[in-house]
Amino acid sequence: MIDWQQIDTILLDLDGTLLDLNYDLHFWLEYVPLIYSQNNNISHQSAKDKIIPILKSEMGKLNWYCPDYWGDRFKLDIVQLKRDVSHMIQILPHVEGFLKDARTLNKKIFLATNAHRKTIQVKMDVVQLESYFDGIISSHDYGAAKQEQSFWTNLSTELNLNKERTIFFDDSLDVLESARMFGIKHLVAISKPSSKIQSKNVNGFVNIENFNNVLPI
Length: 217
What we know:
Low-confidence stretches: none
Oligomer: single chain
Mean pLDDT: 96
Radius of gyration: 17 Å
Order of helices and strands: EHHHHHEHEHHEHEE
């Protein structure tokens, strides 16, 4: 499916690509409303009814991924709450085997994520994947989410990307479409970003359930 001799640079999303999205779904849809309900003396369901629409209003924007923004909005220490349930952070199947193969073949490997650096740190403290990457790029570094072309312009300049010899893995349709618009040649969608949700095809892209589908490199 992938001719790895044609690839020099690997760009990888974090949540739903390398890490099980179940953690994030539980955190935002269950745990944050729970703590909010306790702090505001309302029911868990009432907290969900209030919080989830507010979350959705920022979906795909830089604020959506910013713990400082949501901390101010909900009067919660989001980073500490993330650490409180960090035992739920899990690496998706075959990720480490893929990263080891890629390093052995001297591919350049970069984490390219919308996650805030505070969030990245919480997760890396658990999964210890940093050593596999030649660099970690957060969209907050550029002030633009991966859904925006300016993210890709900045990334390409920083990494001196050869778009023809770059592959990008992500689980979000809007992000993959943005990468394609910018001209990244090789694009792969993760169709099973959460262990708790059935695989769902991401239309218009090559799909894999996990990195076993592209091993060995």
